[in-house]
Specification:
Blueprint: H1 2-23, H2 36-57, H3 63-66, H4 91-99, H5 107-111, E1 139-140, H6 143-152, E2 162-171, E3 177-183, E4 192-199, E5 209-216, E6 230-238
Parallel strand pairs: 1-2, 4-6
Antiparallel strand pairs: 2-3, 2-5, 3-4, 5-6
């Protein structure tokens, strides 16, 4: 039985990886889009290894091949016992990939992260640290760009401008709430939190994806790590969760 578990795990994991990487966009809940080819290759490799093992040992496996007879023919004094029953729990993550894919990280992670102020960006020689926002109406922005400007932009490019931020709702202390995003460098394990506190609007349910329109709310001394990003909301609209929840890149353009 122990050998059966090993081979079936290879097959289930291979099918699960190919399912989330080829047939759905669920892999974006775990890794960056650029890692999709690696997931597909890993899924194919696991299937090949499982198929080779099954063909080599015979399937279903007999006792002689898996070593359960232990050389005492006729007495059945095998000492393996088929392996510990707890080994069956190894199927849980494999089956989860197929039938119960967990959601992307959300407010639980964001609310427990002691988010530090974003690092001050470095400008290239001759370039402005924070170029002016485009003229016109509402400016869509990423939470990362807004947070950096709110904390470090002493030139005041956010002053008097109406911006639009998209993220999920994260509850705070004493009724406060934030619009949040999680950014990843490689996978969900290295996710970094960006949160903007929202003033002047009632908080929707945690993990609800929203688009918040409003103006910069100065908080702390700009240009120091003591400043924090905040927004005075004029409108909060619920939106569907994006296909790639960790992608906070927004093409800055004017809106209405």
């Amino acid at each position: 039985m122990k050998r059966n578990i090993q081979v079936l795990l290879l097959l289930f994991l291979g099918v699960g990886l190919l399912h989330i990487a080829l047939l759905t966009d669920l892999y974006l809940r775990y890794v960056r889009p650029g890692l999709r080819p690696a997931l597909i290759a890993s899924g194919v490799l696991l299937l090949v290894l499982g198929a080779v093992s099954a063909a080599r040992d015979g399937f279903p496996f007999d006792r002689a091949r898996t070593g359960r007879n232990d050389g005492h023919s006729g007495h059945g004094h095998g000492h393996g016992g088929g392996g510990p029953r707890i080994a069956w729990l190894l199927y849980v993550p494999a089956l989860t990939l197929l039938f119960l894919a967990p959601p992307a990280l959300g407010s639980y992670t964001a609310s427990r992260d002691n988010t530090e102020a974003p690092k001050a960006p470095k400008a290239a020689a001759g370039d402005s640290l924070f170029p002016p926002l485009p003229g016109g109406g509402v400016v869509p922005m990423s939470l990362n760009d807004f947070s950096s400007r709110a904390v470090w932009d002493t030139g005041g490019t956010l002053k008097g401008r109406t911006v639009r931020l998209t993220g999920f709702v994260t509850p705070g202390h004493r009724g406060a709430w934030y619009v949040s995003r999680l950014a990843i460098s490689c996978c969900a394990a290295d996710a970094q939190v960006r949160k903007v506190r929202v003033h002047g609007a009632t908080a929707p349910r945690p993990d609800t994806w929203v688009t918040v329109t409003g103006t910069w709310h100065p908080s702390g001394r700009t240009g120091t790590a003591g400043a924090s990003p905040a927004l005075d909301a004029t409108a909060v609209r619920r939106v569907p969760e994006p296909k790639d929840p960790y992608n906070d890149v927004v093409a800055t353009r004017t809106g209405s």
